[in-house]
From TrEMBL:
A divalent metal cation binds at H32, D34, H65, D174. Keywords: Carbohydrate metabolism, Cobalt, Isomerase, Manganese, Metal-binding, Zinc. GO terms for biological process: pentose catabolic process; pentose-phosphate shunt. InterPro entries: Aldolase_TIM, Ribul_P_3_epim, Ribul_P_3_epim-like, RibuloseP-bd_barrel. Substrate binds at S9, H65, G141, F142, G143, G144, D174, G175, G176, G196, S197. The keyword Zinc applies. The gene is rpe. Catalyzes the reversible epimerization of D-ribulose 5-phosphate to D-xylulose 5-phosphate. It catalyses: D-ribulose 5-phosphate = D-xylulose 5-phosphate. The lineage of its organism: Bacteria, Bacillati, Actinomycetota, Actinomycetes, Propionibacteriales. Its cofactor is a divalent metal cation; Zn(2+); Fe(2+); Mn(2+). This is Ribulose-phosphate 3-epimerase. Its EC number is 5.1.3.1.
Length: 221
């Protein structure tokens, strides 16, 4: 398991002041940008031009979570836009191995996401091609949803698979992660934690990042 990383999602931040919003979380490891196309999910956010502008001002690297169809064709633009990590959904990729290799060759970390009903088992042999696996703990599309405990066994199975193959692949959780739920995720084997509403509804977002980090670390010891 890698060191604990906290990745605030800007989905529930103030879109009119995004530069200032990312400046409020200098203690984060990454900024999580939720790209939605209104097809893969029933919501629409932003595209590569806006992500590129945000990458120029962000104090920490960008972690793009692409909830878009035709990931094979659309994902490379987010590496070009300056993201340090690019996550595509396996449900939206026709050739996930080729896409992961393309993302890595272009200079970013390659990551693959699974919706709550998508099993990890068919992808065991792909894990070595990935820098990170994202296990969704809500149905993708919106921030502020309730954490789905039913995803915890999949986090455990994914971590066991990575250990079995001696892989250093990061394991990210996204959706409903808060001071209340982060311990369960850490105990199950996650090491990268996305938190959107928990961070941006806090009075002091950077203090919330520190509190989440501390709680995840406590769950491990
Ligand atoms: O991918 C996402 C939604 O599809 C978001 O990253 C996620 O929901 C973060 O927000 P919150 O912590 O409020 O659930
Ligand atoms: Co996300």
């Amino acid at each position: 398991m890698g060191h604990i990383q906290i990745t605030p999602s800007i989905l529930n931040s103030d879109f009119a002041r995004l530069g200032e919003e990312v400046a409020r979380i200098p203690g984060a490891d990454w900024v999580h940008v939720d790209v939605m196309d209104n097809h893969f999910v029933p919501n629409l956010t932003f595209g590569p031009a806006m992500v590129e502008a945000l990458a120029r001002v962000s104090p920490v690297p960008l972690d793009a979570h692409l909830m878009i169809e035709d990931a094979d064709r659309n994902a490379p633009a987010y590496v070009e836009a300056g993201c340090g990590s690019v996550t595509f959904h396996v449900e939206a990729a026709k050739a996930p191995v080729r896409l992961a290799r393309e993302i890595r060759a272009a200079g970013a970390r390659a990551s693959m996401a699974l919706k709550p009903a998508t099993p990890i088992e068919p992808y065991e042999d792909l894990l070595s091609e990935l820098d990170m696996v994202l296990i969704m703990t809500v149905e993708p599309g919106f921030g502020g949803q309730r954490f789905l405990d039913l995803c915890l066994p999949k986090i455990r199975r994914a971590r066991a698979m990575m250990d079995k193959h001696g892989l250093e692949t990061w394991l990210q959780v996204d959706g409903g992660v808060s001071l209340e739920t982060i311990e369960r995720c850490a105990e199950a084997g996650a090491d990268v934690f996305v938190a959107g509403s928990a961070v941006y509804s806090a009075q002091d977002p950077d203090a919330m990042v520190a509190a989440l980090r501390e709680r995840a670390a406590a769950a491990r010891s």
